[in-house]
Amino acid sequence: MTDASSTLDPAAAAHRPLNKPHRVLLASLIGTTIEFYDFYIYATAAVLVFPTLFFPGADPMTALLASFATFSIAFFARPLGALVFGHFGDRIGRKATLVAALLTMGVSTVIIGLLPTHAQIGVFAPLLLALCRFGQGFGLGGEWGGAVLLATENAPPGKRSWYGMFPQLGAPVGLFLSSGVFWILLHFIDQDALLTWGWRLPFLVSIVLIGLGLWVRLSISETPEFARTVTKKERVKVPAAEIFRHHKRSLALGTFVALVTFVLFYICSAWLLSYNVKVIEIPFLEALRIQIYGSVIFAIAIVIAGRVADRVGRYGFLIVLTALIGLFSFSLSPLLQGGIGGIYTFVTLGMFLMGLTYGVIGAALAAPFPTEVRYTGSSLTFNFAGIFGASLAPYIATWLQATYGMAHVGYYMLAAAAITMACILAMGRDKV
Fold first, then answer.
1. What is the pLDDT of the chain when averaged over all its residues?
2. Where does the chain cross the membrane (predicted)?
């Protein structure tokens, strides 16, 4: 990658027209949709096919836990991706860095669809799977922060939460598409065909989505705020060093402000899918239908959050939501043990709360950092939160449910809500 001085002329940048709103919002939405589609097809396959194909010979619970362990690898790769892509995003610009992040994630996903299984190459199969999973996380580590900045740094005054909602909307759209493609597959092929070759198709379809994402992102200009930073010569040489030197408090508190967001989501998605399929043995199609339904509720709530947060303020909005999530944690055990109706009620409430908090968390995590280090700071915050809140959430919830019972999964969510509440209050209204 080259320095921005060769790709962004300061004089030209000062007079560059603003990107059209619809183009900005589409570019931020479609990129995160593709990235989260790639991420979630792995989560779905980690429940439905990877335990059998990559971890055979173990009992079903051990194989599932091993599959979830590879799922967690991406979350540990994401901060590294945030450091690398954040550096270049703050040095050469948001646009070029976002294209590179998209390609990194996309190529890793396509390769997963081509991998030989354990039956073909033995122990090397799960090792290659883990390596590709690392690549997915590395790419997503640079994707999220740039997409949020692409939206919020083009936002007019008073609309940062609304613009910041659009990249967040990529998460439920990606979840809908990833669950939907497996749901469609299972309507046309049986489970044997799915395990033999069908599971590869969702990963290979990513090629088409990558091409679409590149086309959209290459059509936009650099964000006005970054252009001004170049014009005023305000860029820093090593953004990560600046973050750890002058913004440690915002980084630490922001990480745990997002903690309950991640815990809630991965309990309501990856863990719930495994519980439905492996524990209470709901048919694959019904379990995927529940996940598709949840993604729709998730998306509706994100849109609501973008409108409401700009009117009432993100700080108070997040405090109320976190308290509601804490209360919701007590309903986990009775609802999930209340039959199919209880499961749908759990998904409705959980994904609605998830959408409300996720819809504003992007703008909230970017807010404390100045423009010259914002890509690095917001990306690191989001991805450190992924390690603490998401990386082991399906694993921990599976282990708690199997060892101590369903109520302890709710206590886990409650503890996350309590930590998040303390950090929101410590960060204060002006930093959120």
1. 85
2. 39-58, 64-85, 97-115, 121-141, 162-185, 197-218, 251-272, 292-309, 316-336, 342-367, 379-397, 409-428
